[in-house]
């Protein structure tokens, strides 16, 4: 693998020119995965950059490599780290983890008392979240801000979400609560082997897809999820 140097920093107005590239890759990635992601306009991404609520990764020679931004809901009671995306040519360098770490730090700096949550179908993101202190929770533990849930309307799984009265979907909900008692976190934390074996996350996602999408697999195929 070619050795490449990356700069991971808080985005500013000098990075607004990357907004088109970022939104295009968000759409392409969602299409490739066959799962939804809230669509964001170029103007929306540029606003996040102007507000200092985004992290951007660039190569040493100035090429865009990755991005993530902060959204606040419920008058700042809840914060989401959204739109995590890495350019396809740089997806073997551990950038997603580094970007998530930096956007988490920025969220804690700007919203020190807010709960930070995320919805994802990606096992890799679930593992990274776990390393940062997130725990799996029910949808009822997330914000009830309608503006947040409106963002799911562009997701291919939106009908599933609504059929479950916004209480479940293919995405797994994870939450970091800065004010939660440590013993509660320890009690609810993911099993140690989940932290070490990403395949267990992947099996969980596959099982959820089986249940919600009713894939009609044979009993033998279903049992293979756990073998």
TrEMBL record:
Recorded superkingdom: Bacteria
Gene3D superfamilies reported in the protein's UniProt record: 3.40.630.30
Family matches, as InterPro entries: Acyl_CoA_acyltransferase
Protein name as it appears in the record: GNAT family N-acetyltransferase
Species this protein is from: Algoriphagus marincola
């Amino acid at each position: 693998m070619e050795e490449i140097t990356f700069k991971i920093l808080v985005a500013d107005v000098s990075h607004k020119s990357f907004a088109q590239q970022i939104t295009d890759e968000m759409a392409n990635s969602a299409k490739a995965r066959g799962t939804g992601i809230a669509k964001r306009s170029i103007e929306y991404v540029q606003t996040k950059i102007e507000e200092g609520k985004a992290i951007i990764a660039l190569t040493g020679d100035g090429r865009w490599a990755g991005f993530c931004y902060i959204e606040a809901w419920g008058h700042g009671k809840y914060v989401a780290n959204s739109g995590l995306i890495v350019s396809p040519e740089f997806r073997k360098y551990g950038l997603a983890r580094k970007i998530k770490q930096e956007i988490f730090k920025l969220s804690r700096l700007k919203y020190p008392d807010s709960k930070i949550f995320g919805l994802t179908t990606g096992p890799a993101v679930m593992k990274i979240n776990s390393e940062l202190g997130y725990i799996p929770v029910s949808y009822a533990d997330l914000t009830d801000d309608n503006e947040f849930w409106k963002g799911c309307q562009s997701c291919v799984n939106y009908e599933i979400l609504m059929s479950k009265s916004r209480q479940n979907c293919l995405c797994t909900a994870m939450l970091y609560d800065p004010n939660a008692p440590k013993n509660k976190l320890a009690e609810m934390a993911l099993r140690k082997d989940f932290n070490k074996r990403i395949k267990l996350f992947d099996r969980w996602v596959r099982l959820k897809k089986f249940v919600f999408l009713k894939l009609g697999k044979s009993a033998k195929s279903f049992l293979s999820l756990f073998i």
